[in-house]
Amino acid sequence: MARKLKSDKLLFLATLLLVGASVVMVYSASAVLAMERYEQPYFFLSKQVTWAVAGVFGLAVMMRLDYRIYRQPTVIWTALLVAVVLLVAVLFSPPINGTRRWFSLGGIGVQPSELAKLAVILFCAAILERRMDRINEIGYAITPIAIVVTVVCGLILREPDFGTALALGLIVGVMVFAAGLTYRYLLGGALVMLPVLYTVVISAEYRRRRLLAFMNPWEDPLGDGFQVIQSLIAVGTGGVTGRGLMGGVQKLFFLPEPHTDFIYAVIAEETGLLGATAVLLCFCVIAWRGLRVSLRAPDRFGAFMALGLTTMLTLQAFVNISVVLGLLPTKGIPLPFVSAGGSSLLSSLVGMGILLNVSQHASAEA
Question: Which residues neighbour 58 within 8 Å (Cβ) at sequence distance 6 or greater?
Fold first, then answer.
């Protein structure tokens, strides 16, 4: 019998530490860039603080809303409908750096794919709760999930945003695997997807160049390999204790957009191995405590939702840090809670709020 507990303190603390690090490091990484572009050194900092305050408020609200309201069909289908409408609408927005991932809503930049991830996790959790006992009946349990994921990922790919679409597919894969789907179906699905993924990668020239740069960035050090090389230089020159806050060099127009997807490189350069490890440990705590919440959730819906949210946050962190360290090809996936970016920060904090609410209802024993 589940009993009411307080929110997971370690999970909450790790989140606040990352948000605090975000405010400090976004300013450090962007002040010179903001001065150059806008003649306002606090330009990106003020935006990040605004989103952080909004996100923490959203987290506080979600912590107090019983997570079981999200299993209601009205909530799930409304979230999916809004996400799909926004994903379609963004395709008609003006391109930014050759992509259509954001559009302005009342002067505020919105990235629909962030909402779509949360909506799909809620949908999958609700389906798996009801159909888990017949999970290997593909037509009954998996087909509805496959249809929704295919539509959402297809729209995200049209932006184009291959990294987010792939991450969403992996999140759902983890959820259905945890529900008991036999490995034969998972392996078969992976084999079917391989040629599709290959086709998607080679169909765009910039993806092919990124893949080649990943395999040998030094072949084109001033072109496609430039960002990875500068990131590795930043990480390597940080040493154990770093150059000190505001003391980084690579952010001074060497590392492109250092306050967004490559902010972990700035952290490594300015705070060294100690600071980079501390950030990594925070995500390890989120993974540990999030999985613990999933295991101790009082019902299947809470368990699957907690698993999906934990996977979303930690998978994005793993991919982002791996890209910064040159372990994966460059992808536009931000570091949750840390990278500059309003939609990502807000959706991550809202997702964490839901996860913390599940932890309040978790049973005392796994």
Answer: 346, 349, 350, 353
